[in-house]
Design brief:
Layout lengths: L25 E7 L6 H15 L4 E8 L5 H11 L3 E6 L4 H11 L4 E5 L10 H10 L4 E5 L6 E3 L2 H18 L10 E5 H7 L10 H11 L4 E5 L1 E3 L8 H21 L27 H26 L5 H24 L8 H29 L5 H27 L20 H7 L4 H25 L51
Helix pairs in contact: 5-8, 9-10, 10-11, 11-12
């Protein structure tokens, strides 16, 4: 299944409408553990800042992580004293657990959190949440490592922070600059589908959340911040670093094996020019060309290494044939996954068989070129042979790419209604009605409609389940590549065969669909 064509479960981003004065737009969570001294000054300062500068209704939520001092009593007094403040008590420690619990229960469309020490200057709060309110971005983070950030902290913490982010870039290919800054925000609709995929309940929680969001193609906005280190911080650096490295290994392994269903949180960007049908501009051609060239270069190196190994115990022709065969299988598998984005085991054997046919065509082209040269000239020069081989291999490479794209790995985004264009299927529902229930055409149409409707109902039942309760293993059973966001709008064709069929685009939406 191609993840770039999956409709996902998120609607297109829109600017938040102006709501009632009593409805909070922003919910700022402050996770605390034994912070009886800093909690009240923090909440009072944050509340005063939001009252003075934030143009929407807001809420401040104190998330108590099983504190053992008087922090719960301080939180209760603040809740009684200030209408915009609420408190929430958890009986287990873990910043990630606190954020997941409060964010999952919040009704505010924008969710944020900050550390209780307020190391980050609050003037960055409005720039942090503004792109989420406007619909421009899905998540926003404060960055202490941006060029325009102003940071005051010791050399030890500076070294640890930069080293950690280098590890994320090298191991998980993260492109965001600062994963650990305690100053982040997320849209609630994104959090509802993203948080169930995040396993960590401690300090690695937001790093894992950012990595998954970035891999799913969500937009992350970074805000340079002014940040002053808190010398009284209670964070255990060694333990936190160890847990973070374990988290990096776990997430990296999950991403490498493809066990994370990131297509669930892919967003159908209806206003994205890549989703538009532009004449004479094939979709994804540039990316596929780059991937095909990279795979081709690596395959050539692999072929040469195999030939050197096989040549030690066989003749040149046998070694060449074996090396070409193995490298062709590896080339097809790599292009299947990396160039054309086909995942899962479905159709893998067929793709390999078709890849071998394409390989045979290319081999016949190069061999035929040499045979034609030898027939034209009895003893051609070596430079002439090389020139012919280069030209033939170039033509074979172009032909292989075209066959891969059009035959082996075609774009199957419109396969869900492909039976409508088959010769045995009527060209319009009126044809079905005119021929009557006893006609073969009517029976074919009814069978096709019934099968499609059953599959669609099965997928709808799966989508309606709460995300934490959805089974992870049977992903293939609910193949979203067969259903696009607009399919629900055409569901009436199964109830009324006289309704005309409308063309479906990947970014169409159903006004009756609550998603």
């Amino acid at each position: 299944m191609r993840t770039d064509s999956s409709p996902g479960t998120l609607p297109a981003r829109e600017h938040l409408p102006a709501g009632d004065a009593g409805t909070p737009v922003l919910d700022v969570v402050i996770p605390v553990y034994n912070e009886e001294k800093d909690l009240q000054p923090c909440v009072l300062r944050l509340h005063e800042h939001l009252k003075r500068t934030f143009p929407y209704a807001f809420r401040i939520t104190i998330a108590d992580n099983a504190s053992t001092d008087t922090t719960p009593r301080v939180a209760a007094r603040l809740e009684e004293r200030i209408p915009e403040v609420t408190s929430f008590r958890l009986e287990q420690k873990g910043r990630g657990r606190a954020l997941r619990t409060v964010w999952s229960a919040s009704d505010a469309p924008i969710l944020a959190y900050m550390d209780v020490d307020l190391s980050t200057d609050l003037n960055a709060l409005l720039p942090l949440v503004a792109p989420l309110i406007s619909g421009h971005s899905d998540l926003a983070i404060g960055s202490r490592l941006a060029r325009s950030s102003r940071v005051v902290r010791g050399a030890k913490r500076e070294f640890i922070s930069r080293t950690y982010n280098l590890i994320l870039r090298g191991s998980l290919q993260a492109r965001f600059s600062d994963a650990q800054c305690g100053f982040k925000a997320i849209r609630r609709d994104v959090a509802q589908v993203l948080l169930p995929l995040v396993e960590d309940t401690g300090w690695f929680f937001d790093t894992e959340m950012l990595v998954l969001a970035e891999r799913a193609g969500l937009r992350i906005h970074e805000v340079p911040v002014d940040w002053v280190d808190d010398p009284d911080s209670t964070v255990h650096i060694v333990k936190t670093a160890t847990d973070d490295l374990k988290g990096v290994w776990r997430v990296g392994k999950a991403l490498a094996t493809g066990s994370l269903p990131l297509d669930r949180i892919a967003r159908p960007f209806g206003d994205d020019p890549r989703d538009r049908d532009i004449k004479d501009v094939p979709k994804g051609l540039a990316r596929q060309l780059v991937g095909f060239c990279v795979v081709g270069g690596l395959s050539t190196l692999f072929y040469l290494a195999l030939y050197s190994v096989f040549r030690q115990f066989s003749g040149s022709q046998i070694a060449n044939a074996l090396a070409l065969l193995v490298s062709a299988i590896a080339n097809t598998a790599a292009n299947r996954r990396l160039t054309f984005g086909v995942r899962g085991r479905g159709g893998a054997v067929r793709h390999q068989a078709q890849g071998l046919v394409v390989f045979g065509i290319g081999l016949a082209l190069t061999s035929g070129s040499l045979a034609a040269l030898n027939a034209a000239a009895s003893n051609p020069a070596h430079s002439t042979e090389l020139a012919v081989l280069i030209a033939a291999n170039l033509a074979a490479t172009v032909l292989r790419f075209l066959l891969f794209r059009a035959w082996v790995f075609p774009d199957r985004r419109d396969d869900s209604l492909s039976f409508l264009s088959s010769p045995s299927f009527p060209s319009s529902p009126s044809t079905v009605t005119a021929q009557g229930p006893s006609s073969p055409t009517y029976a074919t149409a009814a069978t096709g409609y019934d099968q499609q409707f059953q599959q669609f109902q099965q997928y709808e039942r799966y989508q309606q389940q709460p995300l934490p309760q959805r089974p992870m293993a049977p992903r293939a059973a609910y193949d979203t590549s067969q259903f696009r966001a607009g399919d629900a709008a055409d569901s009436t064709i199964w109830r009324d065969a006289t309704m005309p069929l409308q063309p479906v685009r990947p970014h169409d939406t159903d006004p009756r669909d609550p998603r």
